[in-house]
Write a structure and sequence with these properties.
Layout (H helix, E strand, L loop, with lengths): L8 H8 L3 H9 L17 H15 L4 H9 L2 H32 L11 H9 L5 H7 L2
Helix pairs in contact: 4-5
Amino acid sequence: MSTVQEMKIGDAAAELGVEAHVLRHWESVGLLHPPRSASGHRSYDQQTLHQARLIQILQRTGLSLNQIRQLGAGACGERQELIDRKRADVREQIALLRATDRFLEHLMACIHPVIAECPECSAFTTRYPARSSWANAMSKR
């Protein structure tokens, strides 16, 4: 029978690579709910650590803490809309990364000193907007 090891906030923060105040903040905004010991201390179990890692991953993808909270607690329609927008953004980012990879490969052989003189360089700079549709939508909120 395996035992689940629980950690104090400092140990959990070190395991996650964040400061303890970050975990307290995530709790204060309703994203984490670490169980409390009889003496009132936070106790980070594996489930809470997994939730914290998920928050970290979602933040790296560009989601705000508010958006992450909406994913977990939003009404079904709001949640679906947020998921649909984020998935569209992910697909857009993948396409941009692939195109950037092809562009960087092209640069290895490009002989044009000015972008406007190279059809491939010019096409790359005009094909993709400066900001993604997701970033534009989020800046308007």
